[in-house]
Amino acid sequence: MTTSDLSRNPDNFCYRHPDRMSFALCQRCQRTICPECQTPAAVGVICPECLQAQRQSRTPAQKRAERRWGRGGGVVATAGGAPVTNWIVGITAGAFLLELLLGLAGIHLQPLLAFFAPRLYPQFGAFEPWRVFTWLLVHSGFIHVGLNLLSVWMIGRLLEPMLGRWRFLALYLISGLGGAAAAALLAFTTPVVGASAALFGMLGALVVIGRHLGGNVTGILVILGINLVVGFFLGGISWQAHVGGLVAGTAVGLVFASTRGARDGRRQLVLLGVVVAALIALLVVPAFLYA
């Protein structure tokens, strides 16, 4: 199928707004819906028509419970929002502020949370596996954390409504895991901090999904290229983590793009499991390579 075929395919556009491309399906009717038409449900998102049908089909007991607990329609009406993105930004900013406050008392979080490959392997004197994710929370300074969180917030508000909350969270964490695996393989003794690997993974997934929907991704590719080049030539930047996050995020994007159908949920989980297993296997290699 060509890009023009994808652009002409009505399944790639919101059924209520035919001029808007989207990657999200209503979890009840499986029709494509844009961020404006999405209402988060217990799992995934639903369209306005299914939301109305859901409200009309409530039992008397459900209506009494909703009145008692003040939940109205039973679904949080935050259509088009990006709650996971907001939580990631908030938690990361909070971790940075906590590091500053504790630093005044001589306590430093960064040595405990930063990714440092030798701390993953017992033969090197420690086993601290949480570092493969916690390094996404700590940053080296105001500019570092500010630029990363601004970028995560901007791209996340575009990606999360298309993918859904749990898929977006999986993308973010798996991209961070990919960055950790690459840093362990290619820069074993270099401490690494920051959300940049996850950010590169988000960009990689956005390229894949944009191409799948028939969109023009030239601008994203230019941004990716510039940032990769900057990482290669400027000191103090872990290009290894950037590349690892980009590769992992692109792989996750390919999984999402190839398992979009209503019956592909189990296959999607299996393929994501394969990606995670491959990254964990790569993390095991340095234990023998640098022994």
Description of the structure:
With 291 residues, the protein is an all-alpha fold. The chain has helices at 3-8, 48-56, 60-69, 83-104, 110-113, 131-134, 142-163, 165-186, 196-212, 218-233, 239-258, 265-289, and strands at 24-25, 32-33, 39-40, 45-46. A two-stranded antiparallel sheet has the order 1-2. A two-stranded antiparallel sheet has the order 3-4. α7 (142-163) runs parallel beside α9 (196-212) and α8 packs across α9. The longest helix is centred in the C-terminal third of the chain and has 25 residues, at 265-289. It is globular and about 60 Å long. The termini are far apart. Residues 68-80 have low confidence and may be disordered.
